[in-house]
Amino acid sequence: MAQEPPLLEVTDLAFTHLGQTQPTIQNVNLTLHPGELVVLAGATGSGKSTVLNCLTGIAPEHIGGQLSGQVYSRGQEITSWSIRDRSQRMGILLQNVETQIFTDQVGEELAFGLENWNLPPGEIQALTQSALTEFDLVEQQNWTIRQLSAGQKQRLLLACLLTRQPDMLLLDEPFAFLDAAGVQLLLGLLLKRVQQGQAVLLIEHRLELLKESCDRIYKIESGSVSPLHKSALQIPVQVPPEAPSSTSEAEKTIILQTQNLSWGGYPPFPDLQVSAGEIVLLKGENGCGKTTLLKLLSGLLKPATGQLEIQGREATRQNVVQRSRAIGFVLQNPNHQLFAESVEAELTQPGVAPERAQKLLKQLNLSHCAEKHPHALSQGQKRRLALGAVLAKQPQICLLDEIMVGQDTTSLELMLSTLKNFTDNSGTLIFTSHDPNVAAVLTPHVVTIGTFS
Amino acid sequence: MPTPRQVRRSPLSRINPFLKIGLSFGLIGLSLFLRHIAPMLVLLGGVLLLMTQLKLRPLILGYILLMVCIFTGSTALLLQNWPEAIFSTLRLLAIVLPTPVLALTTPPADLIRSLQTVRLPSFLTLSLMLIWRFFPLMQQELQRIWEANQLRGIDLKWRPGKWFSGLMVPLVFQMVVYADEVTVGLQTRGYSPTEPRSNSKPLHWRWADTLFCGVAIAWLTLICYLEWGR
Amino acid sequence: MNSPWSLRDYVFAAFMTIGMVASIFLVGPFVPLPFLDLVMWAPFGGIFLTLGMARLQRRGSVALMILPLAVLLLPLSPLITLYLVLTPLATEAVVFFRGNYRSKANRLLGTVMFFVSGVLIGLGSIFIVPALVNTGEFIEEDLAKIIEKFAVLLNNPWLLGVLAVAAGITGSIGWWLGEKVVHQLQRAGKLDANA
Lengths: 453, 230, 195
Description:
Number of strands of chain C: 0
Helix content of chain A: 25-40%
Number of helices of chain C: 8
Shape of chain C: globular
Oligomer: heterotrimer
Low-confidence stretches of chain A: 237-247
Structural class of chain C: mainly alpha
Largest sheet of chain C: none
CATH topology of chain C: Arp2/3 complex 21 kDa subunit ARPC3
Largest interface: A-B, 70 and 57 residues
Structural class of chain A: alpha/beta
Shape of chain A: globular
Helix content of chain C: over 70%
Low-confidence stretches of chain C: 133-140
Order of helices and strands of chain C: HHHHHHHH
Mean pLDDT of chain C: 80
CATH class of chain C: Mainly Alpha
Largest sheet of chain A: 6 strands, mixed
Number of domains of chain C: 1
Strand order of the largest sheet of chain A: 6-7-8-3-9-10
Strand content of chain C: under 5%
């Protein structure tokens, strides 16, 4: 058989963002062949999103800047194609699935994409039905979108993108909010497609998830892409964990205690007894109620039954504002928690000493952008800033909800060392995370949620 | 977690939306001319019957009832005439109720599709779709920002001075980011405001529509007969 | 059809519409009197209106944000729809002669026009509706009762002027806040407004 042109070929791609003198990515060369699962890995801010944006046409159509180099699909140059035109050949799954869903019902959503291509009604019905069957969504056909879990939404969207049999799938960190079971399910679906001859290009920094299944890995570092041999893969190991701090008096001061807490349709939560300086990891499958428990502790939700004590005082009836003196809560999405007009102002809230703010900025490596607008930061920097803003108020207890997602090694290390610092000063940490590396460093006391005991 | 369940759709939701819009305009027009209590009761009775197809929350129903009572009471006070006050309440209900009742039994996707068939400019149908889909999401964002303020010890309920910096600005930022992502999202799904779109569920005349038409005509005739025919 | 608007513009306009509707819910419950709510809403609605004008810039921006809302509310009340069609048209008609919404001054004019014409058209309709009723065979008494609610206004036409001025002032506050947000968005690199 004659050598078939690759499904995707990129030659000498470079992109310079508007107002920048240095290119964000340069000399990017990569190929994607039928039946391949390829990973593009890199730290936050390394330019991997920019590469994806250039491949999909999002840059320069929506992101101002100068693009050079060529993108080919099956030997045809598509560099000047619009996102819509490219979407015929590549299924594009963005990070936030909510922004790609436009109707309020599962069946309707599948039809929506096909209607956009002006297909005849009969064909739409047939394609919709076969997609529902293939993606195991027949039962959910008449569900509203709101009834779906995040994983189901992602599966629905994949079904939508694949109805027209594109050559390849490009996915931007699809595993970010999935638990182990969800990851396996999605990976299975992708591998099936790969076996059928389609190609998959994934952006992901947690390589340990994909080491076994992927064919090739490209590594992106400060804007340039290079192939990475699979054997060269090493899972980053951070600061060696210290032995759990010796049992001292601190251990005896119980700072937070719960009894029979329950809420909504969840099984009753296990009783917690947390002392000052302790680190607790809440573990469990997606949707088991980890976030709900954090909300109950912070006062954002009122428990249906049970009691809560903070610093030895009955706190069940306290509201969020009252509890906020003792408890800080860093939410999953940092954008909800940033209010100030500059990074520095975000930390120097009333009652926070300027020196403390400066120290935290330094610890979190944000000093260089102190004057910037918080929303001008990268996602990783925003997460660190949101953490800093909570720690600045020196709470006794700090709650974290999946804030380590999408953090590269350096950023994660900064976060973890800041948190270590916090707990060493007898701060209490209660957090959720899917990342085993985090647990390896923080050596928390693990509490499993969601099992009927 | 909410337990997923099948969405139950009433038989009314399958009726051609244009028929429903026509009927509601007919009912409103008619209610303006009625002067007798019997036809008014027949009209309103039918509307209430249609209302049973809606799953209204008791709270909303209670609110509607309260409003009706306040209106009747204040009209009675003004008119010094209870029968007339009750009649104007009935008329008010007959004017206000039909359109929302029939609109709420139409799934939004069907409504948007039918608007598409009457060649409404594509940006209008697109905007309607986006407003319908993303309004609840933005409400959720607003709720989360509100909570994030509380977590910082700021209760916005008592501090309207903080509404701008604490609520509006973060909300706007979220909306601007969302708007850009949604544009990309639409394009990845193949949407273009200038390209022709097909309709996977074209409006076909069905026997249910004939039935609906028959019943509606009979109903309207009965009202007219009671008003003018005797 | 050749449209000067891109998909991005449509989506942005729709999100601003969402913002306006959301802020109605925020203000709505606190205001007991009709038309005073327009005055109270203006500082919030004005933010999104200004933002939309700053980003979309072209003539017709206000209509692009408000007309979908008019269609959306058609199933609830045809009268509101008519009202929502007239108000942006009045605004656009005035700003038409200024060219676009690229300058702050034009955006201020647009915002003030929108809210002032909102009050005038809304209140004006109170005079028109009874006039229509009297010519027709309608039941005058009943509608008279509904109009009773606005009797205070009917007897004191100067109140109309006061309300219009108030809406203009609160609308300007909305514009001022809106420009502050525009400035912040530009600092964060999220808005490429102001040529």
